[in-house]
């Protein structure tokens, strides 16, 4: 049976499991259940050299929840035939971007943290990769929370964090928003989430810092104290956590749990083309 061959390889880490024995073209419900079990255990899964079709990626992704349309899909990142797929690419066609995010660095974040219901999962497949650069890094926000000093855990437990959703990380207005009238971002449109969220399936606690200190506020704290605490938490997460680095090969798939991980991407030489296809699945409101 296929199920007997699906396992995490010996190269797996505390952040990511390499999956062996899964056939994207022929699998059963039990096989999907085993993938889900490993996904929930590790947070990040890697499938090497899959070479599957766009339709097969969509079919596989559907087992893990309803599809979420990423904001970039409504702009430059739409797929020509599969609306479920976000195209991440620096390739130009007819003088226009053929995908989203270009070739620049993407700093640490959880995906669309400014949504009321951020996505649960993402499945990213490599179509074209540059010879160097464009690596993707992952860390566990479970372990970031669990490794906090006891005194700091006491400070963050039960706290809420506000994220403005008017501007993106580059300072551009998000789709559907206009320039705010107030200079105080706490008065802008935004969302409030728990600073420590409890995973809806595993019950484990994870730090939830979103994607940037700018425009984030720990509710009820003076702004300067909030900023200091957020700086301390970000340093703890990004400087002390174990990090898994994915150096891409064509056909690789990375599947991560957005509820308990953060990720970032290296910049790469714009003279080389990098094309990735991503599907995103729906999640619960953080609690």
TrEMBL record:
Name of the protein: Alpha-ketoglutarate-dependent taurine dioxygenase
Gene3D superfamilies: Clavaminate synthase-like
SUPFAM superfamilies to which the protein is assigned, alphabetical: Clavaminate synthase-like
InterPro entries, sorted: AtsK-like (IPR051323), TauD-like_sf (IPR042098), TauD/TfdA-like (IPR003819)
Organism for this UniProt entry: Rhizobium halophytocola
Keyword tags: Dioxygenase, Iron, Metal-binding, Oxidoreductase
Keyword Metal-binding: yes
Top-rank lineage group of the source organism: Bacteria
UniProt-recorded Gene Ontology molecular function terms: dioxygenase activity
Pfam families documented for this protein: TauD
Protein family membership: Belongs to the TfdA dioxygenase family.
Domain TauD/TfdA-like: 15-280
């Amino acid at each position: 049976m296929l199920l007997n061959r699906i396992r995490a390889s010996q190269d797996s880490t505390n952040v990511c499991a390499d999956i062996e024995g899964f056939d994207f073209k022929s699998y059963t419900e039990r096989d999907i259940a085993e993938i889900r079990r490993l996904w929930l255990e590790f947070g990040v899964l890697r499938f090497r050299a899959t070479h599957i079709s766009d339709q097969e990626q969509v079919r596989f992704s559907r087992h893990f929840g309803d599809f979420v349309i990423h904001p970039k899909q409504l702009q430059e990142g739409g797929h020509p035939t599969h609306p479920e797929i976000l195209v991440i690419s620096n390739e130009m066609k007819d003088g226009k971007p053929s995908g989203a995010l270009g070739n620049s660095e993407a700093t640490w974040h959880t995906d669309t943290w400014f949504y009321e219901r951020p996505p649960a999962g993402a499945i990213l497949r490599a179509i074209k990769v540059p010879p160097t650069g464009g690596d993707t890094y992952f860390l566990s926000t479970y372990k970031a929370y669990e490794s906090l000093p006891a005194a700091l855990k006491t400070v963050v437990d039960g706290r809420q964090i506000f994220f403005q959703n008017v501007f993106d990380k580059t300072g551009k207005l998000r789709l559907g928003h206009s320039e705010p009238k107030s200079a105080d971002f706490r008065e802008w449109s935004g969302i409030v989430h728990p600073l420590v969220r409890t995973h809806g399936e595993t019950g484990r606690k994870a730090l939830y810092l979103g994607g940037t200190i700018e425009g984030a506020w720990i509710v009820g704290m003076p702004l300067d104290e909030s900023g200091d605490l957020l700086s301390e938490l970000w340093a703890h997460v990004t400087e002390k956590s174990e990090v898994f680095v994915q150096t891409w090969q064509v056909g690789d798939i990375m599947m991560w749990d957005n509820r308990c991980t953060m990720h970032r991407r290296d910049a790469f030489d714009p003279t080389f083309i990098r094309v990735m296809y991503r599907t995103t699945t729906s999640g619960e409101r953080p609690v």
